[in-house]
Amino acid sequence: MFRIQPFVASALLLSTCVAAYDNLLGFNGAPEVEARTLDEIYEAAVAEGGVVTCWHGGDEAMQQDGLKTAFEARFPKMTLNLTVDLSKYQDGDIDRQLVRATDDLYVDSIILQTLHDYPRWDQEGGLLHYQPLDFYKLYPEFRDIRGAWHATAVYPWTFTWNTDRVADGPMEFTDFLKPEFKDKLVLTYPTDDDASLYAFDLILQEFGIEWFDALLAQNPLWVRGTQTAATLLFSPNSTAAATFTSIVGLSPPAPLNISIPTKGHFNTWPQRAAILKDTPHPEGAKLLHNFILSKEYQRNTGVWSVRRDVPAPTGFPELIDIPSTDPTEFQRFLADRPRVERLRFFFESKLGTPQGPSSVNDSI
Ligand SMILES: *[C@@H]1O[C@H](CO)[C@@H](O)[C@H](O)[C@H]1NC(C)=O
Ligand SMILES: *[C@@H]1O[C@H](CO)[C@@H](O)[C@H](O)[C@H]1NC(C)=O
Ligand SMILES: *[C@@H]1O[C@H](CO)[C@@H](O)[C@H](O)[C@H]1NC(C)=O
Protein backbone atom coordinates (compact mmCIF):
# COMPACT_ATOMS: atom_id res chain seq x y z
CA MET A 1 0.00 0.00 0.00
CA PHE A 2 1.29 3.44 -0.80
CA ARG A 3 2.07 5.30 2.39
CA ILE A 4 2.82 8.97 2.29
CA GLN A 5 6.15 9.66 3.96
CA PRO A 6 6.01 11.97 6.95
CA PHE A 7 8.61 14.26 5.40
CA VAL A 8 6.84 14.52 2.11
CA ALA A 9 3.76 15.32 4.11
CA SER A 10 5.55 18.15 5.84
CA ALA A 11 6.61 19.60 2.52
CA LEU A 12 3.11 19.32 1.12
CA LEU A 13 1.54 20.79 4.18
CA LEU A 14 2.21 24.32 2.98
CA SER A 15 0.16 23.94 -0.15
CA THR A 16 -2.26 21.06 0.30
CA CYS A 17 -2.56 20.35 3.99
CA VAL A 18 -2.95 16.60 3.39
CA ALA A 19 -1.51 15.31 6.66
CA ALA A 20 0.30 16.20 9.83
CA TYR A 21 3.95 15.21 10.07
CA ASP A 22 4.31 15.08 13.82
CA ASN A 23 4.23 11.40 14.81
CA LEU A 24 3.38 11.85 18.48
CA LEU A 25 -0.22 10.71 18.24
CA GLY A 26 0.50 8.09 15.64
CA PHE A 27 1.44 5.75 18.54
CA ASN A 28 2.64 2.24 17.70
CA GLY A 29 6.19 3.31 18.58
CA ALA A 30 7.29 0.07 20.23
CA PRO A 31 10.79 -0.93 19.16
CA GLU A 32 11.95 -3.97 17.32
CA VAL A 33 14.03 -5.91 19.87
CA GLU A 34 17.12 -7.68 18.53
CA ALA A 35 17.20 -11.38 19.42
CA ARG A 36 19.72 -12.71 16.89
CA THR A 37 23.43 -13.25 17.47
CA LEU A 38 25.97 -10.95 15.82
CA ASP A 39 26.77 -13.69 13.32
CA GLU A 40 23.12 -14.11 12.38
CA ILE A 41 22.81 -10.37 11.80
CA TYR A 42 26.04 -10.54 9.76
CA GLU A 43 24.50 -13.19 7.53
CA ALA A 44 21.42 -11.03 6.94
CA ALA A 45 23.59 -7.96 6.23
CA VAL A 46 25.67 -9.85 3.67
CA ALA A 47 22.50 -11.17 1.98
CA GLU A 48 21.21 -7.59 1.82
CA GLY A 49 24.27 -6.41 -0.12
CA GLY A 50 27.19 -6.35 2.30
CA VAL A 51 27.40 -2.59 2.68
CA VAL A 52 26.40 -0.03 5.28
CA THR A 53 26.62 3.72 4.73
CA CYS A 54 27.37 5.65 7.88
CA TRP A 55 27.75 9.38 8.40
CA HIS A 56 29.85 10.04 11.45
CA GLY A 57 30.42 13.43 13.01
CA GLY A 58 33.99 14.58 13.32
CA ASP A 59 36.48 17.12 12.10
CA GLU A 60 39.01 15.04 10.14
CA ALA A 61 38.25 12.41 7.50
CA MET A 62 40.50 9.83 9.19
CA GLN A 63 38.94 10.08 12.63
CA GLN A 64 36.86 6.90 12.34
CA ASP A 65 39.36 4.81 10.38
CA GLY A 66 39.74 2.68 13.51
CA LEU A 67 36.02 1.86 13.45
CA LYS A 68 36.11 0.97 9.76
CA THR A 69 39.15 -1.26 10.19
CA ALA A 70 37.74 -3.03 13.24
CA PHE A 71 34.31 -3.56 11.65
CA GLU A 72 35.65 -4.89 8.35
CA ALA A 73 38.18 -7.12 10.15
CA ARG A 74 35.39 -8.68 12.23
CA PHE A 75 33.01 -8.92 9.23
CA PRO A 76 35.20 -9.38 6.13
CA LYS A 77 32.24 -9.64 3.73
CA MET A 78 31.03 -6.18 4.76
CA THR A 79 32.04 -2.71 3.58
CA LEU A 80 31.61 0.19 5.95
CA ASN A 81 30.99 3.12 3.62
CA LEU A 82 31.95 5.85 6.02
CA THR A 83 31.87 9.63 5.69
CA VAL A 84 33.24 11.79 8.50
CA ASP A 85 32.32 15.47 8.48
CA LEU A 86 31.16 18.15 10.88
CA SER A 87 27.90 17.05 12.51
CA LYS A 88 26.51 20.55 12.10
CA TYR A 89 26.84 20.18 8.32
CA GLN A 90 25.81 16.52 8.12
CA ASP A 91 22.56 17.10 9.98
CA GLY A 92 21.31 19.52 7.34
CA ASP A 93 22.18 17.01 4.64
CA ILE A 94 20.22 14.37 6.57
CA ASP A 95 17.24 16.72 6.61
CA ARG A 96 17.57 17.08 2.86
CA GLN A 97 17.76 13.30 2.45
CA LEU A 98 14.64 12.83 4.52
CA VAL A 99 12.62 15.48 2.76
CA ARG A 100 13.30 13.83 -0.60
CA ALA A 101 11.82 10.61 0.81
CA THR A 102 12.50 6.96 0.39
CA ASP A 103 13.76 6.69 -3.17
CA ASP A 104 16.72 8.97 -2.61
CA LEU A 105 17.68 7.93 0.89
CA TYR A 106 21.12 6.33 0.89
CA VAL A 107 22.39 6.92 4.42
CA ASP A 108 21.74 4.04 6.81
CA SER A 109 23.36 5.07 10.08
CA ILE A 110 24.04 8.49 11.60
CA ILE A 111 26.41 8.97 14.56
CA LEU A 112 26.53 12.69 15.34
CA GLN A 113 27.42 15.30 17.92
CA THR A 114 24.21 17.26 17.30
CA LEU A 115 22.31 15.39 20.01
CA HIS A 116 19.37 17.78 19.76
CA ASP A 117 18.50 16.63 16.23
CA TYR A 118 17.54 13.12 17.30
CA PRO A 119 14.32 13.84 19.25
CA ARG A 120 13.21 16.02 16.34
CA TRP A 121 13.99 13.40 13.70
CA ASP A 122 12.16 10.86 15.81
CA GLN A 123 9.12 13.08 16.22
CA GLU A 124 9.11 13.51 12.44
CA GLY A 125 9.05 9.73 12.03
CA GLY A 126 12.54 9.52 10.56
CA LEU A 127 14.19 7.03 12.92
CA LEU A 128 13.91 3.26 13.24
CA HIS A 129 12.85 2.13 16.71
CA TYR A 130 15.31 -0.66 17.38
CA GLN A 131 16.96 -2.06 20.48
CA PRO A 132 20.31 -3.65 19.72
CA LEU A 133 21.60 -6.59 21.77
CA ASP A 134 22.38 -5.74 25.42
CA PHE A 135 20.36 -2.53 25.11
CA TYR A 136 19.64 -2.53 28.86
CA LYS A 137 23.36 -2.77 29.64
CA LEU A 138 23.65 0.83 28.47
CA TYR A 139 23.24 3.54 31.09
CA PRO A 140 19.59 4.67 30.89
CA GLU A 141 20.68 8.24 30.08
CA PHE A 142 22.52 6.93 27.04
CA ARG A 143 19.54 5.40 25.26
CA ASP A 144 16.07 6.35 24.13
CA ILE A 145 13.50 4.12 25.78
CA ARG A 146 11.90 3.23 22.44
CA GLY A 147 15.25 2.60 20.81
CA ALA A 148 15.12 5.61 18.47
CA TRP A 149 18.76 6.32 19.35
CA HIS A 150 21.55 5.24 21.65
CA ALA A 151 24.99 6.54 22.50
CA THR A 152 28.15 4.92 21.11
CA ALA A 153 30.95 6.29 23.32
CA VAL A 154 31.53 9.13 25.77
CA TYR A 155 33.86 11.75 24.35
CA PRO A 156 35.91 13.61 26.96
CA TRP A 157 37.49 17.01 26.47
CA THR A 158 40.46 16.46 28.75
CA PHE A 159 43.36 18.82 29.33
CA THR A 160 46.04 17.68 26.87
CA TRP A 161 49.67 18.73 26.62
CA ASN A 162 52.96 17.84 24.97
CA THR A 163 55.36 16.77 27.73
CA ASP A 164 58.37 17.85 25.61
CA ARG A 165 57.08 21.44 25.45
CA VAL A 166 55.89 22.08 28.97
CA ALA A 167 57.27 20.67 32.21
CA ASP A 168 54.06 20.61 34.24
CA GLY A 169 50.81 19.95 32.45
CA PRO A 170 47.68 21.92 33.43
CA MET A 171 45.69 20.28 36.24
CA GLU A 172 43.00 22.96 36.72
CA PHE A 173 41.48 25.61 34.43
CA THR A 174 43.39 28.35 36.25
CA ASP A 175 46.70 26.71 35.24
CA PHE A 176 46.12 27.76 31.61
CA LEU A 177 46.66 31.33 32.77
CA LYS A 178 50.22 30.65 34.03
CA PRO A 179 53.10 32.47 32.26
CA GLU A 180 54.55 29.22 30.83
CA PHE A 181 51.49 28.86 28.58
CA LYS A 182 51.84 32.27 26.98
CA ASP A 183 51.83 31.83 23.16
CA LYS A 184 51.59 28.04 23.66
CA LEU A 185 47.87 27.31 23.77
CA VAL A 186 45.92 25.97 20.81
CA LEU A 187 42.12 26.13 21.09
CA THR A 188 39.12 25.36 18.93
CA TYR A 189 36.90 28.37 18.15
CA PRO A 190 33.83 28.31 20.42
CA THR A 191 32.09 30.03 17.52
CA ASP A 192 32.68 27.04 15.22
CA ASP A 193 31.94 24.00 17.37
CA ASP A 194 29.12 23.77 19.91
CA ALA A 195 31.19 21.40 22.05
CA SER A 196 33.81 24.12 22.38
CA LEU A 197 31.09 26.68 23.03
CA TYR A 198 29.74 24.50 25.82
CA ALA A 199 33.23 24.08 27.30
CA PHE A 200 33.65 27.85 27.42
CA ASP A 201 30.15 28.31 28.85
CA LEU A 202 30.97 25.89 31.68
CA ILE A 203 34.29 27.61 32.38
CA LEU A 204 33.01 31.18 32.31
CA GLN A 205 29.97 30.37 34.47
CA GLU A 206 32.45 29.05 37.05
CA PHE A 207 35.47 31.34 36.75
CA GLY A 208 33.98 34.51 35.31
CA ILE A 209 34.81 36.78 32.41
CA GLU A 210 38.09 37.64 34.14
CA TRP A 211 39.31 34.15 33.36
CA PHE A 212 38.49 34.65 29.68
CA ASP A 213 40.20 38.05 29.54
CA ALA A 214 43.32 36.51 31.10
CA LEU A 215 43.13 33.63 28.60
CA LEU A 216 43.05 36.08 25.68
CA ALA A 217 46.14 37.77 27.13
CA GLN A 218 47.90 34.39 26.75
CA ASN A 219 47.54 34.85 22.99
CA PRO A 220 46.14 31.39 22.17
CA LEU A 221 46.14 30.09 18.61
CA TRP A 222 42.50 29.63 17.52
CA VAL A 223 41.83 26.81 15.05
CA ARG A 224 38.91 25.10 13.35
CA GLY A 225 38.64 21.48 14.42
CA THR A 226 39.41 19.69 17.67
CA GLN A 227 41.69 17.27 15.84
CA THR A 228 43.70 20.19 14.48
CA ALA A 229 44.51 21.22 18.06
CA ALA A 230 45.85 17.71 18.78
CA THR A 231 47.73 17.61 15.46
CA LEU A 232 49.52 20.85 16.31
CA LEU A 233 50.48 19.53 19.74
CA PHE A 234 52.28 16.72 17.90
CA SER A 235 53.64 18.63 14.92
CA PRO A 236 57.37 19.45 14.97
CA ASN A 237 56.52 22.67 13.09
CA SER A 238 54.32 23.99 15.88
CA THR A 239 55.10 25.39 19.31
CA ALA A 240 51.63 24.57 20.64
CA ALA A 241 51.98 22.91 24.03
CA ALA A 242 48.51 22.50 25.54
CA THR A 243 44.77 22.55 24.88
CA PHE A 244 41.45 21.84 26.59
CA THR A 245 39.42 21.58 23.38
CA SER A 246 40.43 18.23 21.96
CA ILE A 247 39.85 14.50 22.36
CA VAL A 248 42.91 12.27 22.37
CA GLY A 249 41.48 9.43 24.47
CA LEU A 250 42.43 8.71 28.05
CA SER A 251 45.79 7.07 27.26
CA PRO A 252 47.29 9.14 24.44
CA PRO A 253 50.59 8.25 22.80
CA ALA A 254 53.77 9.98 24.06
CA PRO A 255 54.71 12.80 24.15
CA LEU A 256 51.07 13.70 24.88
CA ASN A 257 49.62 13.42 28.34
CA ILE A 258 46.24 14.33 29.79
CA SER A 259 44.55 15.33 33.02
CA ILE A 260 41.02 16.10 34.15
CA PRO A 261 40.26 19.03 36.44
CA THR A 262 38.70 18.81 39.91
CA LYS A 263 37.42 22.42 39.99
CA GLY A 264 34.81 23.65 37.56
CA HIS A 265 33.47 21.35 34.83
CA PHE A 266 34.85 19.86 31.66
CA ASN A 267 32.76 18.63 28.77
CA THR A 268 31.92 14.98 28.17
CA TRP A 269 29.06 13.81 26.00
CA PRO A 270 27.61 10.59 24.63
CA GLN A 271 27.88 10.66 20.84
CA ARG A 272 24.44 9.68 19.53
CA ALA A 273 23.56 7.05 16.93
CA ALA A 274 20.39 6.17 15.04
CA ILE A 275 19.27 4.14 12.06
CA LEU A 276 17.11 5.94 9.53
CA LYS A 277 13.73 4.27 9.25
CA ASP A 278 13.62 3.89 5.50
CA THR A 279 17.29 3.03 5.15
CA PRO A 280 18.32 0.92 2.14
CA HIS A 281 20.53 -1.29 4.37
CA PRO A 282 18.72 -1.88 7.67
CA GLU A 283 20.57 -5.13 8.38
CA GLY A 284 23.95 -3.55 7.68
CA ALA A 285 23.07 -0.66 9.99
CA LYS A 286 21.91 -3.04 12.71
CA LEU A 287 25.15 -4.99 12.39
CA LEU A 288 27.20 -1.81 12.74
CA HIS A 289 25.29 -0.62 15.81
CA ASN A 290 25.40 -4.03 17.50
CA PHE A 291 29.14 -4.23 16.81
CA ILE A 292 29.80 -0.76 18.25
CA LEU A 293 27.86 -1.62 21.40
CA SER A 294 29.48 -5.05 21.82
CA LYS A 295 31.73 -5.52 24.83
CA GLU A 296 34.67 -6.32 22.58
CA TYR A 297 34.43 -2.95 20.85
CA GLN A 298 33.45 -0.91 23.92
CA ARG A 299 36.52 -2.12 25.82
CA ASN A 300 38.84 -0.71 23.18
CA THR A 301 37.54 2.77 22.43
CA GLY A 302 40.11 4.44 24.70
CA VAL A 303 37.32 6.50 26.31
CA TRP A 304 34.52 5.81 28.78
CA SER A 305 32.06 3.15 27.67
CA VAL A 306 28.32 3.68 27.38
CA ARG A 307 27.85 0.19 28.90
CA ARG A 308 27.48 -0.25 32.64
CA ASP A 309 29.39 -3.54 32.50
CA VAL A 310 32.56 -2.17 30.88
CA PRO A 311 34.85 -0.57 33.47
CA ALA A 312 36.52 2.81 33.03
CA PRO A 313 39.88 2.76 31.24
CA THR A 314 42.76 1.84 33.58
CA GLY A 315 43.72 4.57 36.01
CA PHE A 316 40.43 6.49 35.68
CA PRO A 317 37.37 6.57 37.93
CA GLU A 318 33.97 5.65 36.58
CA LEU A 319 32.38 8.59 34.81
CA ILE A 320 29.49 8.79 37.27
CA ASP A 321 32.01 9.18 40.11
CA ILE A 322 33.60 12.32 38.63
CA PRO A 323 31.90 15.43 40.03
CA SER A 324 33.62 17.75 37.53
CA THR A 325 31.68 16.48 34.51
CA ASP A 326 28.14 15.42 33.65
CA PRO A 327 27.78 13.67 30.30
CA THR A 328 24.01 14.11 30.29
CA GLU A 329 24.12 17.92 30.29
CA PHE A 330 25.40 18.60 26.77
CA GLN A 331 22.09 17.59 25.18
CA ARG A 332 20.29 20.15 27.35
CA PHE A 333 22.77 22.82 26.32
CA LEU A 334 22.40 21.97 22.63
CA ALA A 335 18.62 21.88 22.70
CA ASP A 336 18.39 25.54 23.77
CA ARG A 337 19.26 27.07 20.40
CA PRO A 338 18.51 30.72 21.35
CA ARG A 339 20.92 30.42 24.28
CA VAL A 340 23.51 28.76 22.04
CA GLU A 341 23.23 31.60 19.56
CA ARG A 342 23.55 34.31 22.20
CA LEU A 343 26.68 32.66 23.57
CA ARG A 344 28.13 32.15 20.10
CA PHE A 345 27.67 35.81 19.18
CA PHE A 346 29.22 36.88 22.48
CA PHE A 347 32.36 34.92 21.62
CA GLU A 348 32.23 36.09 18.03
CA SER A 349 32.35 39.67 19.30
CA LYS A 350 35.58 38.81 21.15
CA LEU A 351 37.26 36.48 18.62
CA GLY A 352 35.71 37.32 15.28
CA THR A 353 34.28 34.63 13.03
CA PRO A 354 36.16 31.33 12.57
CA GLN A 355 38.90 31.76 9.99
CA GLY A 356 40.03 29.38 7.27
CA PRO A 357 38.48 26.37 5.53
CA SER A 358 36.73 23.54 7.39
CA SER A 359 39.29 21.43 9.25
CA VAL A 360 38.18 18.43 7.18
CA ASN A 361 39.59 20.14 4.05
CA ASP A 362 42.45 22.25 5.37
CA SER A 363 45.26 19.62 5.10
CA ILE A 364 46.37 20.13 8.72
C1 LIG B 1 28.65 5.50 0.03
O1 LIG B 1 28.40 6.75 0.64
C2 LIG B 1 28.30 7.82 -0.27
C3 LIG B 1 28.22 9.12 0.52
O2 LIG B 1 27.47 8.99 1.68
C4 LIG B 1 27.07 7.59 -1.17
O3 LIG B 1 26.98 8.63 -2.11
C5 LIG B 1 27.24 6.25 -1.88
O4 LIG B 1 26.06 5.98 -2.61
C6 LIG B 1 27.47 5.13 -0.89
N1 LIG B 1 27.80 3.89 -1.60
C7 LIG B 1 27.12 2.77 -1.46
C8 LIG B 1 27.66 1.59 -2.18
O5 LIG B 1 26.12 2.68 -0.77
C1 LIG C 1 56.86 21.20 8.46
O1 LIG C 1 57.13 22.27 7.57
C2 LIG C 1 57.82 21.88 6.40
C3 LIG C 1 58.21 23.12 5.61
O2 LIG C 1 57.08 23.96 5.42
C4 LIG C 1 56.96 20.92 5.60
O3 LIG C 1 57.63 20.49 4.44
C5 LIG C 1 56.61 19.71 6.48
O4 LIG C 1 55.71 18.87 5.79
C6 LIG C 1 55.99 20.15 7.79
N1 LIG C 1 55.81 19.00 8.67
C7 LIG C 1 54.66 18.75 9.31
C8 LIG C 1 54.65 17.52 10.16
O5 LIG C 1 53.67 19.45 9.20
C1 LIG D 1 50.75 12.37 33.03
O1 LIG D 1 50.01 13.22 33.88
C2 LIG D 1 49.63 12.63 35.12
C3 LIG D 1 48.76 13.64 35.82
O2 LIG D 1 47.53 13.76 35.13
C4 LIG D 1 50.84 12.25 35.92
O3 LIG D 1 50.45 11.61 37.10
C5 LIG D 1 51.71 11.32 35.08
O4 LIG D 1 52.93 11.07 35.75
C6 LIG D 1 52.03 11.95 33.73
N1 LIG D 1 52.73 10.99 32.87
C7 LIG D 1 53.78 11.32 32.13
C8 LIG D 1 54.36 10.23 31.31
O5 LIG D 1 54.25 12.47 32.12
From TrEMBL:
Domain of life: Eukaryota
Presence of the UniProt keyword Repeat in the record: no
Coiled-coil residue spans: none
Signal peptide (UniProt feature, chain positions): 1-20
UniProt keyword terms in alphabetical order: Signal
Protein name per Swiss-Prot or TrEMBL: ABC transporter
Lineage: Eukaryota, Fungi, Dikarya, Ascomycota, Pezizomycotina
